[in-house]
Write a structure and sequence with these properties.
Aspartate Aminotransferase, domain 1, single chain, alpha/beta, two-stranded parallel sheet, 13 strands, Aspartate Aminotransferase, domain 2, 402 residues
Length: 402
């Protein structure tokens, strides 16, 4: 019955991964996937995670279902981490559920928006994470884009960002990445966050925050500026949280959806609808990753260990960025000075598909869409090859690439 199905991979990251695996080149490098890598190229498990798993192995008594809301204590501790010291910590206008990763939170948020605000359009940054659009169109939403990145300067285009927000119709939803913008690495300053928040409030736009790289830009506290800024002007917003990078729990699919409503009565109704949508989708989330996060955040010792490991990983990423810039400059190139203004796990080179294909064919280098490069994937072994390839690319007219 399925013989008529004909389909190709649509996700550009999956396509890059498939192309990389199929390549016979010996000295090939996959620099597109968004996971932290250490100097050996491995994606390590935090020691705090392994310690938490040992505790769980010893003390776990049941594998019973969690229910659609997920691990209640995980939800409480996550809110405590995000909202400590603010009125939101004990607010009855906040509801949170555990989800299968940040992508699960995004999908449920999309379905909730489609049901709660029929006809509302969802606005994404240009460029956006390549999976944002299919997640939300799959949930039944119509998407559009607002300008975010200046292709000439390869920096945040804040003026055009505000111009576009100022023209979005009242009642629409705007997705904003809280930190470590994927793919551009260009992030709003504290002052810009407050300007955007006020502008969106004046336009009566609903903020949808995507916090997928908590701790990887300005640190755990610094990366929460977006929440404070949005809350200062809005009494309704949504937050999708991913624990994948923050806790090194990639394949344990651990995330959360947090919804801020105008009051407690509305909040309960929103929670009921959200749980109905969960039951019609995956019914309930997996337990392990949330149990690990709960165990870490319940222990002062493990929390301190985890924070130190995360800080060390973030520092290494910035060291990799500086080495990359210095290596390019040492070879005589000044074309990549814009990288100094980008932060987080990625650098964004702003390359077109012909240039990316040339890098794959001629140098066996596999970058993400637009030339998104996982900066943590750079090491002393592959850095010379990557720099030489980019210098070669500088000398070639992109229009002549085959």
């Amino acid at each position: 019955m399925l013989k008529h199905v004909k389909a190709e991979l649509e996700d550009p990251i999956l396509k890059v991964m498939a192309s990389f695996k199929a390549s016979p080149a010996k000295n090939k490098h996959d620099l597109g996937i968004g996971v932290y890598r250490d100097s050996s190229g491995a994606t390590p498990i935090f020691k705090a995670v392994k310690e938490a798993e040992l505790i769980l192995q010893k003390n776990e008594k049941s594998k019973a279902y969690l229910g659609p809301i997920g691990d209640v204590e995980f939800n409480r501790l996550l809110r405590q981490m995000l909202f400590s010291g603010t009125p939101l910590l004990d607010s009855d206008s906040i509801q949170s559920i555990q989800t299968p990763g940040g992508t699960g939170a995004l999908r449920i948020a999309g379905e909730l928006l489609n049901r709660a605000i029929p006809g509302a359009k969802l606005w994404l940054s240009d460029p956006a994470w390549s999976t944002h659009k299919p997640i939300f169109t799959g949930a039944g939403l119509t998407t559009a884009t607002y300008r975010y990145f200046d292709a000439h300067s390869k920096q945040l285009d804040f003026t055009r960002l505000c111009d576009d927000l100022n023209s979005i119709p009242e009642g629409d939803v705007v997705l904003l990445q809280s930190c470590g913008h994927n793919p551009s690495g260009c992030n709003l300053t504290k002052e810009q966050w407050y300007q955007v928040s006020q502008l969106m409030a004046e336009r009566k736009l609903l903020p949808l925050l995507d916090l997928a790289y908590h701790g990887w830009d300005q640190g755990l506290d610094g990366d929460l500026v977006s929440l404070t800024a949005i809350e200062s002007c809005h009494d309704e917003w949504m937050l999708c949280y991913s624990a994948s990078k923050t806790f090194s729990l990639y394949n344990d699919r651990t995330g959360a959806l947090i919804v801020r409503s105008v009051n407690a009565d509305v909040s309960i109704q929103v929670l009921n609808l959200t749980l109905n949508l969960v039951c019609a989708n995956y019914y309930m989330p997996p337990a392990h990753g949330a149990s690990v996060v709960r165990t870490i955040l319940s222990s002062a010792e493990l929390t301190d260990m985890w924070q130190q490991e995360l800080d060390a990983a973030r520092s290494r990423v910035e060291e990799c960025r500086q080495r990359f810039i210095q290596a390019l400059q040492a070879k005589g190139s000044e074309a990549y000075d814009f990288l100094k203004g980008q932060r987080g796990l990625f650098v964004y080179l702003g390359l077109d598909e012909k240039q990316l294909d040339w890098l794959r064919q001629e140098h066996a280098l596999y970058f993400g869409p637009g030339g998104r490069l996982n900066i943590a994937g750079l090491n002393r072994q592959n850095l010379p090859q990557i720099c030489d390839a980019l210098l070669d690319l500088e000398q070639i007219d992109a229009r002549s690439l085959k």
